[in-house]
Design goal:
By secondary structure, this protein is of the alpha+beta class. The chain contains 17 helices and 14 strands. It has 4 domains: 97 residues, no CATH class; 172 residues, Ribonuclease H-like superfamily/Ribonuclease H (Nucleotidyltransferase, domain 5), CATH 3.30.420.10; 70 residues, no CATH class; 79 residues, no CATH class. 25% of the residues are buried.
Length: 483
């Protein structure tokens, strides 16, 4: 006989949602004792538990066999009705099933307001046959609205981030709205770093939820009771849908799963709410969900690449340019199959149309260093006129006519002359070249050098001294010549 304080402690811990196993470990008592305290005892010491129906007494062996095969109560009820023609209710069958179970751990249900939360998870269904005698691994994505228990189920072949997000999109559209919170297990596709209090949400998943106006609430590690609704949904799929399949055919799996969802899963009386999920969703939760966005979230595949010394990143055997100042940096690449978006620390630095060839350079002129950028004839003509004068512009037009394949290099050369010589000197050299019909950059350069070493001609006139003239010389000079 245990003291009253033990009874009180057990009741308190049960009220907080702890399982019998955890309470037994903390208090050092057997789980059966906790079970007796949980259900209470009358004055005679008899446990108040589940009563078995006399009508099902003859079928208890068969029911136990089905339980050992992990069949759900609903599937057992369906088999009793169809195979044995039994006329009884699901509640009667369920009471018998619960009485046959040796141990049944319980948790305090987490109540949620309509539209507040959905729980999501993956569950492994096993191998399915595919055409060509091959077999494929199948997982089921489960999303359950916590208030109405309306469920969405989708069969997938992987648990990637892209698949995870795509299933969310389908689930929200199936629910005709978006819950405020999404409670998920610490899946790699949703949670990058599990943490007890502040898990790091996967970047792409966080972006997706922000687009739909929802938030993520990862479950704490090793606390399955925090997502009991979706875990029950996964078990329900395995024990009802999966065990009810006649054959595991991959080609018809999606159709069979959707039919089962619409005709069985969402139209049954839920064991906890005692209501039909579809009806509860239609009456209460549908209107409480947030609106769907005007456009679907566009998924981008994310990778990281280091910028080569040529100012490009390599993606799918092609080269895509980024600003030349980012050489050597590691950038993040986003692609949706049509475009390639490149960002640095969250800021977009380049956007390209994907090239389906191999070994191609996709280069934007603005990404190159200024001296390597390609410009039009009008661009160079305007710059030469602004920095040197109209003579340089006219000389460029003459060069372009005589040298149509190399005029850009000569235009850049003329601009470089302004770094070595004053603009007036280059302008004078261009004028002399035009006067002589010369269209060579080297000639203009040589003229500039010649002008540099030629002293300027003075245009200032100095009047002769008073008394000086053409014949005004000292006469004594002539005497010296005669001598």
């Amino acid at each position: 006989m245990y003291r009253m304080d033990v009874h009180t402690t057990v009741k308190t811990l049960l009220g907080r949602g702890l399982s019998r196993r955890k309470i037994a470990e903390q208090l050092g008592i057997h789980r059966k004792v906790i079970k007796r305290i949980e259900f209470g005892s009358d004055s005679s010491g008899l446990i108040k538990g589940y009563t078995r129906s006399k009508q099902l007494k003859a079928y208890e062996g068969q029911i136990q066999t089905w339980l050992d095969q992990d069949l759900t109560g609903e599937l057992i009820y369906q088999k009793l009705v169809k195979e044995h023609g039994l006329q009884t209710s699901y509640s009667t069958v369920n009471r018998t099933i619960r009485s046959l179970k040796a141990d049944h751990e319980s948790f305090v249900p987490m109540q949620c307001l309509a539209g507040e939360e959905a729980q999501v998870d993956f569950g492994y269904l096993g191998l399915f046959d595919r055409e060509g005698a091959s077999r494929v691994k199948i997982w089921v994505f489960c999303a359950v609205l916590s208030h109405s228990r309306l469920g969405y189920f989708e069969a997938v072949t992987d648990q990637s981030v892209e698949t995870f997000i795509r299933c969310h999109i389908h689930a929200f559209e199936f629910f005709c709205g978006v819950p405020r919170l999404v409670r998920l297990d610490n899946l790699k596709s949703g949670v990058t770093t599990p943490d007890f209090y502040e898990p790091l949400i996967q970047e792409q998943y966080a972006s997706f939820l922000a687009h739909y106006g929802a938030g993520a609430v990862p479950c704490r590690v090793r606390t399955p009771e925090h997502k009991g609704k979706v875990e029950s949904g996964v078990k329900y799929v395995k024990k009802n849908f999966l065990l009810g399949l006649d054959q595991r055919n991959f080609s018809s799996l999606s159709t069979d799963l959707r039919t089962w969802t619409d005709t069985v899963a969402n139209r049954r009386v839920h064991g906890t709410t005692k209501r039909v999920p579809l009806q509860m969703w239609q009456q209460v939760e549908k209107s409480a969900l947030g609106p769907l966005p005007a456009q679907r979230y566009e998924f981008y595949h994310v990778e990281e690449r280091k910028v080569t010394r040529f100012g490009h990143v390599i993606f799918r055997n092609n080269y895509y340019s980024v600003p030349y100042t980012l050489v050597g940096q590691t950038l993040r690449l986003f692609t949706n199959g049509t475009f390639l978006r490149i960002s640095e620390q969250g800021q977009e630095v380049a956007l390209h149309l994907l090239n389906n060839d191999k070994g191609q350079y996709v280069t934007q002129n603005g990404h190159l260093a200024p001296h390597k950028q390609q410009h039009t004839l009008e661009y160079y003509a305007q710059r030469l006129e602004q920095e040197i004068g109209t003579e340089a512009r006219d000389l460029l037009l003459l060069i372009q006519q005589n040298h149509p394949s190399h005029w850009k290099d000569k235009a850049r050369g003329l601009l470089q002359l302004c770094r070595r010589h004053p603009p007036q000197r280059v302008q004078e050299a261009c004028r002399k070249a035009l006067d002589n019909g010369i269209s060579s950059y080297r000639s203009v350069r040589d003229i500039c050098l010649a002008l540099e070493h030629t002293p300027p001609i003075s245009t200032h006139f100095e009047a002769p001294a008073p008394g000086a003239g053409g014949m005004a010389h000292e006469l004594s000079l002539y005497d010296q010549l005669v001598r």
